[in-house]
């Protein structure tokens, strides 16, 4: 296969994963946008507001987990074109309270090529400071990507 065709296929996979992310029902609760710029890298843009706050006036830990898990997951799944990955473990380190404003979750594949993948992610707040980081382990499932509603290349 010529390199141009491989790049086209890879880009089609990235766009289909972005579409899958957008179609997930959970993202009606967490308004966000996924971008996969290259293999093994995912970036998710969120806007944190008071809907995500705990009683202390900052983002609840569920928001941190959601953003970190998704960014790491899609960084890993960008390397897998046939199956949906599943999170099997995820470790979090919360270093700074998140207040209202834009947040970027940056995910990066670390290791794994066959069945189990490791990826990490970090949250960057509106001031450009890291607010959290996490590392996840993801395993290939029996769920074919092609059969999932939403997994399609953008028109």
From TrEMBL:
The keyword S-adenosyl-L-methionine does not apply. Keywords: Hydrolase. It comes from the Bacteria. Residues 56-131 form the Thioesterase domain. Pfam families: 4HBT. GO terms for molecular function: hydrolase activity. Its EC number is 3.1.2.-. InterPro entries: HotDog_dom_sf, Thioestr_dom. CDD domains: PaaI_thioesterase (cd03443). This is PaaI family thioesterase. It comes from Sphingomonas hylomeconis.
